[in-house]
Amino acid sequence: MNRVLLAFQPKLSLILLLIAAPTLTAFTIAVRAQGSQLSLADILIALRSKKATLTDRNKILTDAINTRGTTFALTPEIEKELAGTGADKVLLDSIRKRAQIAKVTAVRQPPVETKPKVEPPRTEPVAPAPVLDFAFYEKRAGESLAKGDLDAALADYTKAIEMNGASAPVRMARGDAYVAKKSYALAIADFTKVIELEPTNAVALAHRADANEKQGDAAAALDDYKKAYTLDPTIEAAKQAVERFNAEQAKLTQPAAPAPEPVKPAVVPEFVDLGQINESRAVRMAKPLYPPTALRSGFGGQVAVDIELDINGNVTKAKAVSGSPFLRQSSEDAARQSKFKPAMIGDKAVKAKARIIYSFLAKR
Fold this sequence. Notes:
Layout: H1 2-8, H2 14-19, H3 24-33, H4 40-48, H5 54-68, H6 76-85, H7 89-108, H8 134-146, H9 150-163, H10 168-180, H11 184-197, H12 202-215, H13 218-231, H14 236-253, E1 271-276, E2 282-284, H15 292-297, E3 301-309, E4 315-322, H16 325-336, E5 339-340, E6 343-345, E7 348-360
Parallel strand pairs: 1-7
Antiparallel strand pairs: 2-5, 3-4, 3-7, 6-7
C-alpha cells in the first residue's frame, strides 16, 4: 500500500515515513525509489517527530539522504541546528558526503546543451529552508513557551541572545522562563541585564524583586520593589511590598505601651489583659492556612483575632475582629490550635485575654 501511495505522491514528507514505522522496510525502499532531494525543513520536521525512536529517525534519514541527496550544503550554522534537534554523527556525515558528491558532479557535468531542457512538472513546491536568524529563534522560543516546553524555549532564547544581546524583551522573556524553572539566580542575571539596558524599566525591577524574594533575599527584594514603585506606582506587587514595609516601620516608631499598674495581692481579677502577643510568649504558635480562593483573588493584609486563655495557657475562645472576611476563619482556627504561657499574678496563674495579629501577603 505504501508503494502505491508513493507512486501518486512522489514527494511525501518524512513525517509520513516515520508514521509508517510498522512497515518501515517496504516504505523506506519505496522512498528511495521515489521523491526528490531532501530539504533542511524535511530533515528538521522528521527529527522532531515522536512517531519513532530518535535512533530509527536518524537511520531512516541517513538511508534517504544516501539515496536521494539534499538540497543544501552543510554549513557550521546548519550543522549546529541539526545536532541540537537530534541528528547523530552518521546522519551529519551522510549530509556532508552527499553535498561533496553533488559539488564534484556539478564540476564534471558536460557543457550545457543548446536545446532547452524540458523539466517535468512539479507536483509540489519544495519548502524553503528557514532562515536561522534572531527573529526565527525568538518566534520559536515564544511558541515553545506557550506550549509549556520551558527547556526548548530557554534553548532558543539563548540562541537569540547570542545573536542580539541588546534585546531587552528577549532577556525579560528568558528571565521569566528561568523563574518558572525555579532557577532564580539565572533569572536575576537576566533581569539585571535588562535594567542595565533600560534603567527605568519598572517591570524588570519588580520581576527581579520577585526572584530575589523567592530566593530568600528579602533586603534586595524590598530595594527593587521600592525602585519599581517609585517609577510606576500602579505595579501592585511593588505597592503592597512598600506599604507593608512602611507599616512595619511605623510600628517600630510607636511608643511602648505603658506598664500596667501593680495589682494588689488581695485582688485577683478574673482575666488579665495581655494585649497583643506573639511567638515569644507562645508554647505552640499555629500558622493560619492561606485559603486558595483568597490567594488567587489577591486578598491579603492583617487579621486581628481576640482570644481568651485558661490558667494553663490554652485558647478557649477565638474571634476575628478585623481583616478580610476571606481570611478570618483560617486565622481563628490557627488561634484555637495555639497555646501560650499562663498569665501570672505573683505566683498565681490566672485567665487572660489577648490579641494575635496574623499577616497574609497576597502574591501577584
